[in-house]
Structure formats: C-alpha cells, structure tokens
Amino acid sequence: GDLVNIFNPELIILSGKIILSSDLFLAEVKHDLKKFCFPSLLYHLKIKKSEMIDEAGIIGAAYLFFNRK
C-alpha cells in the first residue's frame, strides 16, 4: 500500500512461480490495497500476471549485464 501511495503506478506486474497460485491470494491483495491506499490512486491501477513465468529473472539479469556502465 505504501509503495502505491508513494509511486502511484498504473500497472503492477506479478511474476515468478508464485503467480501460478495467484487465484489463492490475488483477491485478498486487491482487498488490502483498498484498505491501505488512497482511493484515487486505485482508480487506474491494474494488477496483471506476467506471461514470462520462468524467463523474467534471466531476462532481467541479462538486461542488467548488457546495460551496465
């Protein structure tokens, strides 16, 4: 909730193997966001599951490696 209040994101992408079980917890996350966030910030906020379940970490690591200064 604090991160949403500070950064006001339009999109939160959940990734990793935990999203395979998102049906068990995603409704609770959305409910808790309503309790801890400013209502105006939730109007446009979307929460989506990543399509890259296994690849996200390796792609992020490769990006950091090739874009280092």
Describe the structure.
By secondary structure, the chain is mainly α. Helices cover 52% and strands 12% of the residues. It contains four helices and two strands, in the order H-E-H-H-E-H. The longest helix is centred in the middle third of the chain and has 15 residues. The radius of gyration is 14 Å and the shape is flat.
Short account of what is shown:
The chain is mainly alpha-helical.
Task: Output the keywords.
single chain, 69 residues, mainly alpha, two-stranded parallel sheet, 4 helices
Task: Lay out the secondary structure.
Blueprint: H1 2-7, E1 11-14, H2 22-36, H3 39-42, E2 46-49, H4 56-66
Parallel strand pairs: 1-2
Global structural class: mainly alpha
Radius of gyration from CA coordinates: 14 Å
What's the order of the H and E elements?
A: HEHHEH
Low-confidence stretches: none
Could you say which overall geometry the principal axes of the C-alpha atoms support?
Answer: flat
Largest β sheet strand count, sense and barrel closure: 2 strands, parallel
Q: How many alpha or pi helices?
A: 4
Q: How helix-rich are the residues, as a percent range?
A: 40-55%
- Biggest β-sheet: strands ordered side by side in the sheet: 1-2
Q: Overall pLDDT, averaged?
A: 90
User: For the terminal residues, how far apart are their CA atoms?
Assistant: 33 Å
| Beta-strand percent range | 5-15%
Q: What is the tally of beta strands?
A: 2
